[in-house]
Amino acid sequence: MYGNNEIISYLQTNKILALKLDHAVTAVGQQVTNQIETLGKGATRLLYYTSCFTDEYNDVCQKQKTEDLRFRNGVIRIIQNGDVVYEMLRIYFDEIFKYKTNDQLEHIKKALMAANVHIAASTLTGAGYALAVATSVRIGLNLSMQLSALTGRAAGTVAGVVATYGLVQKAADSVHRLYVQYPAYYSALYMQQLEMMYFLIEPVFERAGALEAQWSSDSGIASIITRMIR
After folding, report:
1. What angle (nearest 5°) sits at the alpha carbon of residue 199, between those of residues 90 and 162?
2. Which of 64, 69, 104, 133 has its CA 20 to 30 A from that of 170?
3. What digits encode the pLDDT tens for the residues 164-197?
4. Torsion of CA 93, 75, 141, 133, to 10 degrees
5. Cα(28)–Cα(24) distance, rounded to whole angstroms?
6. What is the C-alpha to C-alpha distance for residues 97 and 82, in angstroms, rounded to an integer?
7. Residue-wise pLDDT tens digits, 30-84
8. Cα–Cα distance between 25 and 202 in angstroms, integer?
9. Is 153 helix (H, G, I), strand (E, B) or coil?
10. If you ran DSSP here, which 8-state letter would residue 201 be given?
11. CA pair distance 230, 58, nearest whole angstrom
């Protein structure tokens, strides 16, 4: 475990750098600011591990260890060339369409066509339509699966370790929000050990209002799909 003073000193130095870059170039400054946020989360997560030495906070320690393990499993899926984004989209649309009748699916399809969104589904069933819509949405997304690029540092350095833990903490924060906002989808992802990868698509879901689909009308669902594709 790295010394707390070294971590804090690094963070303080880079906060000053982030402020300078913010004044110089907004885009670059925002990128550095995001990096500092990740480092801050990583430092906090590392400090939480000190709870492992006290019985009172053993549950916090065990929770983080479980999150780390499940995050690792998700990364392994990516390394093995698994398109986890497509899988998470498919699971999402499976959840949305699994109780829809053929008439309801037809209504959604017509609403999408009226918005000039055409879904090529071989069969108009919940499962078949989920596959088709997930494919259409995935094609329109440009998400990088290179997690090392998100850390911005070599994994062997102090900053790299902190940034990696920051990424895990971002994933943990994201999945907690999902658990609160859409428990059924969280459970479906959890069953596939993908819930810790949800942070990759959370910005897309937030922009489209995707989590509102659980109580939306058929027309509302069509609007959500349209926003996700565009």
Report:
1. 145
2. 133
3. 677 888 889 999 999 999 999 999 999 999 999 9
4. -20
5. 8
6. 24
7. 443 455 455 556 556 665 565 665 655 667 777 878 888 888 888 888 777 778 8
8. 27
9. coil
10. T
11. 45
What DSSP element (H or E) covers 108?
helix 102-114
Question: Which residue in this structure is represented by tokens 């949405």?
Answer: 137
Length of the chain equals 230
Torsion of CA 86, 90, 93, 99, to 10 degrees: 180
DSSP tag of 54: S
For residue 129 the two structure tokens come to 């339509």
SS (H, E, C) 192-220: CCCHHHHHHCHHHHHHHCHHHHHHCCHHH
Give the amino acid at 129.
Y
Distance, in Å, from the CA atom of 155 to the CA atom of 148, rounded to the nearest integer, reads 8
203 token code pair: 């910005």
Question: Could you give the CA distance from residue 143 to residue 201 in angstroms, rounded to a whole number?
Answer: 8
Rounded CA-CA distance 98/36 in Å is 41
pTM for this entry: 0.74
Q: What is the rounded CA–CA span in Å between residue 223 and residue 209?
A: 9
Dihedral of CA 114/120/125/130: which sign?
negative
